[in-house]
Write a structure and sequence with these properties.
Layout lengths: L9 H5 L2 E8 L5 E8 L10 E6 L7 E2 L8 E5 L5 E6 L6 E6 L6 E2 L7 E6 L5 E7 L4 H8 L14 E7 L5 E3 L7 E7 L6 E6 L4 H4 L4 E6 L4 E7 L2 E11 L2 E9 L7 E6 L8 E2 L7 E6 L7 E6 L2 E8 L4 E8 L2 E7 L6 E7 L2 E8 L6 E2 L15 E7 L5 E7 L11 E7 L19 H5 L4 E6 L8 H5 L8 H15 L3 E11 L1 H12 L5 E5 L5 H7 L7 H4 L28 E6 L7 H13 L4 E6 L9 H19 L12
Parallel strand pairs: 31-32, 31-33, 33-34, 34-35, 35-36
Antiparallel strand pairs: 1-2, 2-3, 3-4, 5-6, 6-7, 7-8, 9-10, 10-11, 11-12, 13-14, 14-15, 15-16, 17-18, 18-19, 19-20, 21-22, 22-23, 23-24, 25-26, 26-27, 27-28, 29-30, 30-32
GO biological process, one term: proteolysis
Pfam families: PD40, Peptidase_S9
Organism: Trebonia kvetii
């Protein structure tokens, strides 16, 4: 490590800024995107819109001041202005700002929140998803503090509405009836809208009631195109032989990753065809191309690939392969230029653009201070599971060290999902991450066990109704390999993770005493209680195998719940959870804490107020980074060494 390199501090991690939501202009000249701080110190995160030349010919410039939560940019059809959502007036409303600068113009003064906007190509209209306005009865109850919580009535339905830019009139489209709209896509010629809706805003079951609709804005009518897969999203239009199609992403049965489905909307019967069955890669994004078939991103092992739909074969064909992580794909009208977020081993996420089959150039540079840091070497791993299945993952070593300096104390960080993955991306985040722990002298193992994406649908679906099985043995196989190769010290092993990764950490320490320390962040301790209280509802039973109301038990989910093994736990564990987490409620952490207290197991339990499933407040992010590293230092640092694999 260079003696002149600055130290990696928690402040350096959380005080940076990150780009998101890139969208390329229809003419392919500009890319608009959002820049937000990693952690915020006030009541909400302030976000600004930026614009960059797609060819990199000029530096990016700030389009809005960043004094409000400006987000969700959408280009006008003429590429001269950007529509966006902002909470400047206290609720999310629609604004427009010209690319040449000037003050943003507010376009709506709606009594409910606006959650999505889509400018239409053939008319001065914008399709909106707008929540119902409070009624007079709602206002009366609020004034009188009559706030009884009536289940199913506390969330506002998102309705499809159309804003006339010439008159400012906002009209409802009644053809969808009493459905909650969650996604929109405008046909490139402006002729119709594709809409995805749920039966209710409640996520605990409504995601399984997704339906696709074709909306005629002239008549206000909607044609139902049938039930989709679970949690459908990202609808895009494309045309072949005069017939319009809508493709979308949704989760197939069984649980695990997404598939691309396609519907020929001109056909008499709406048939939802699976376009990705049998592929060894997993679709993650769809991008509409006005003058051709859609583009798509696919997770491909540790990397990402761009594919284009072959309209004749109705199969996706590879266009290019990209190193590391690429997401948030967007294409211009012709499809000749794309933009996306991209990150590689030592480069943080930034906005990139270029031709879909060529090299992408970096447009943004939101964290230049990180370039002065000496990072730990990040190595790709390829190994075999106990049953011979090929697996991959990453290994991050302490800065300035190599394998010959081992064995090192090893911390295994398990990803969430489980239908997620570790790509070969920059491993620094405001939660415990590879480079953060490596900078403290640890080797960090980032495995991609079964259940994740990047190796096809069968690989992702393996853990359905079987969590804690093959994914657990896959992780152990990787750890054993690193021990055998002299990288990891078998007497100084730690494990941690968040969400499903937190479940795996809790599961691990109930199965073995090999780990000397663990960290469980927003992790599942009891699957039956998660079905009862988590926002995923019965979707969680697709992982754990059962619901608590299926007879008197014992239930299959009891056999895969860490709480059932609490009496066996001897590993010190740090438990952290957001107080307002609706995905994995804090009750999961409390239950685990009480069980460990009952059995006298060493642990520390921390609740972060106001936080949901991910921690957003700056001070909480700082505390989590420092606390986690201190926890592993306490239990994994050898008294005869400096904790970095070398004698003290």
């Amino acid at each position: 490590m260079s003696e002149d390199a600055p130290e990696l501090t928690a402040e350096l991690v959380v005080d940076g800024a990150v780009p998101s939501q890139p969208v390329i202009s229809p003419d392919g000249r500009w890319v608009a995107y959002v820049v937000a701080p990693v952690g915020f110190g006030g009541e909400r995160r302030m976000c600004a819109l930026w614009v960059a030349a797609a060819d990199g010919s000029s530096p990016p410039w700030k389009l809005t001041a960043g004094t409000a939560a400006d987000s969700d940019p959408r280009w006008a059809p003429d590429s001269a202005s950007v529509f966006f959502l902002s909470d400047r007036t206290g609720s999310s409303q629609l604004y427009r700002v010209r690319v040449g600068g000037g003050e943003a113009e507010i376009l709506t003064d709606w009594g409910g929140e606006i959650s999505a906007a889509w400018p239409l190509a053939d008319a001065p209209l914008v399709a909106l998803v707008a929540a119902d306005e409070p009624s007079e009865e709602d206002e009366r109850r609020r004034a009188e503090r009559d706030d009884a919580f009536v289940w199913g009535q506390q969330l506002r339905w998102g309705r499809l509405r159309v804003l006339d830019l010439a008159t400012g009139e906002l009209c409802a489209v009644d053809g969808l009836g009493d459905r909650h709209v969650v996604a929109l896509s405008a046909r490139p010629d402006g002729g119709a809208l594709a809409a995805i809706s749920w039966a209710s805003p409640e996520t605990d079951w409504a995601a399984t009631t997704s339906e696709l609709h074709l909306v005629d804005l002239e008549t206000g009518t909607a044609r139902d195109l049938g039930r989709t897969g679970t949690a459908a999203r990202s609808p895009v239009w494309w045309q072949a032989d005069g017939c319009w199609h809508v493709a979308y992403l949704a989760m197939p049965v069984p649980f695990g990753g997404d598939a691309v489905y396609d519907v020929a909307v001109s056909a008499a019967a709406a048939v939802h065809r699976d376009l990705t069955a049998g592929m060894a890669v997993c679709p993650t994004e769809l991008a509409q191309v006005a003058d051709g078939p859609p583009l798509a991103l696919f997770a491909d092992g540790l990397d990402t690939a761009i594919y284009r739909l072959d309209p004749d074969l109705l199969r996706f064909e590879r266009v290019s392969a990209l190193d590391g992580l690429v997401d948030s794909l967007t294409a211009c009208r012709s499809g000749e230029v794309i933009a996306a977020l991209a990150s590689t081993s030592y480069e943080p996420v930034n906005v990139h653009a270029g031709p879909p089959g060529g090299q992408l150039i970096r447009l943004s540079d939101t964290q230049p201070a990180l370039r002065a840091i000496s990072w730990g070497s990040q190595e790709r791993l390829s190994y075999r599971a106990s049953d011979g299945l090929g697996l991959d993952g990453l290994l991050v070593l302490p800065p300035g060290r190599n394998r010959a300096d081992g064995p090192f104390p090893l911390i295994t960080l398990v990803h969430g999902g489980p239908d997620a993955r570790y790509a070969d991306q920059f491993m620094l985040a405001p939660h415990p991450s590879g480079q953060w722990l490596a900078s403290a002298g640890y080797a960090v193992f980032l495995p991609n066990p079964r259940g994740g994406v990047g190796h096809g649908r069968d690989f992702a679906a393996t853990v359905a109704r079987s969590v804690g099985g093959s994914e657990w043995s896959d992780i152990i196989s990787g750890i054993d390999l690193l021990i055998a190769e002299g990288v990891a010290d078998p007497d100084r092993l730690g494990i941690g993770g968040a969400s499903h990764g937190g479940f795996m950490a809790a599961w691990a320490i109930g199965q073995t005493d090999r780990f000397k320390a663990a960290m469980m962040a927003a992790g599942i301790s009891d699957w039956g209680m998660l079905v009862a209280t988590g926002e995923g509802g019965t979707l969680e039973a697709e992982l754990s195998g059962s619901c608590g109301w299926e007879g008197s038990g014992p239930h299959p989910h009891d056999q895969v719940s860490p709480i059932s093994f609490a009496s066996k736990i001897r590993t010190p564990v740090l438990i952290v959870n957001g107080e307002d987490d609706t995905n994995v409620p804090v009750s999961q952490a409390i239950y685990f804490h009480r069980a460990l207290s009952w059995y006298g197991a060493e642990h520390e339990f921390v609740i972060y107020p106001r936080e949901g499933h991910g921690f957003a407040e700056r001070n909480h992010q700082l505390d989590l980074l420092r606390r986690t590293r201190a926890w592993f230092d306490r239990w994994l640092r050898d008294e005869t060494s400096d904790g970095r694999g070398s004698p003290a």
